[in-house]
Amino acid sequence: MNHEPIPFERLNFFLKQLELDHQAQERLAPWRQYFMDQSHEFGREFCRYFLAIERTRHILEQGENLPRLEKVLGQWFHALFSEEFSQRFLTYLWNSGVRHVNLSLDQRFVNLGYAMARQFCHRIVDEKIPPDQQEGVAEVVDRMLDFCVLVATDSFITMTSRCDRQMIEGIAHQVRNPITIIGGNIRRLQKKTDPASPAFLAYEMVLKENQRLERMMGDIAMYTGMFQEDAAPQLCSLADYLDLAHRWVLQRGLMQGVAWQPELPSGFDQVLCDPQDLEAMLRYVLENAAEAADPERPLVEAASGPDKDPHLVCLAISNNGKTPEAMDMDEILSPFHSTKPMGTGLGLPIVSLAARRNLGVLSLEPNPEGGAVCRLSLPFPPKD
Ligand code: HEM
Predict the structure, then answer these.
(1) What is the CA(100)–ligand 1 centre distance, in A?
(2) Sign of the four-CA dihedral 274, 279, 282, 288
(3) Which listed CATH number (2.60.40.2890, 1.10.274.10, 1.20.1050.40, 1.10.490.10) goes with 1-228?
(4) 21-50 pLDDT per residue, tens
């Protein structure tokens, strides 16, 4: 059953991009019946085509799939030429993608089905439409089929990423309970142990690893959560969100006694960003900068200013300390890559994902005076 809302706004955007407007419909109008008359034949030919392919034959030979598919595909072909992309047709089309995912049908075969449908339609154009109209009609039909492929792909991506997400969330949920139980028991055992004994140190190590797993679960939930809904950008004050992130980092025992005075000149003190995403990005960046700063004289600074791209504001957060050796962004941003013994390897991938969701960019480079500079470029609020 599909509980995923149908993304009409996105589907209508595809329709607009493909210029499947009233004019295109008018061009096709006199010839629609020729296509509709071939609906049954389309269903039959579609099934013959996929029966000849070993990998799809076994799907069609299951239960009543074959006669049903012949009927279903005939109906789809008829609806394609009679329904003018109504909301009802969009729902029907999108849900066919859901059905295919539920059947574990390889999306490549669905795309092959559209290629076959295109050849079938071109044959009708060649055989039935007057030569001077053929090019125009074929062009509209191609765009209609391109649109169907986009809808099927949209539905496939939405449904498969929902399955992946549910799987990851399920694992995170299952792992969380044992982590809590292990943590509680080890803490109890440690209390009864002599702090000078090797067992005490061993418990300490287990607790640290347990905490890392706990953080990992939190980060995984944050990472997968970012795929659930589109970002909802709002005007956000950088000072407010940096302050929130700073307080959070202080609570974690970092940046204690480090002078903190972000420089946010007027005109570069606000960004258009989803508030939750901004909060998460600044927390992770600040935490990373604080953890990696020189332990003797830690320094973390933040300053905003213009970006290379005039549509973005650049917020640079830098630290001092050891300059990271290789700054290969692909490596740094790949999930679970971490140079810190207790790192989850998800902090910067989350920041990068959140930046991209908000049409921004994350970059990282060595700080000439030692340490690193993390640049977060985010959209500028429109000037009135
Ligand atoms: C042009 C490509 C395709 C289109 C437009 C299409 C369209 C549809 C539609 C509209 C449904 C009905 C959804 C519903 O009412 O729930 C459906 C179901 C189904 N499709 Fe596809 N399909 C395509 C490709 C394929 C391919 C390549 C196969 C496998 C060979 C396939 C196998 C099935 C099966 C088994 C069902 C379930 C039939 C039933 O039990 O009602 N489809 N498809």
Answers:
(1) 6
(2) negative
(3) 1.10.490.10
(4) 988 989 999 999 999 999 999 999 999 999
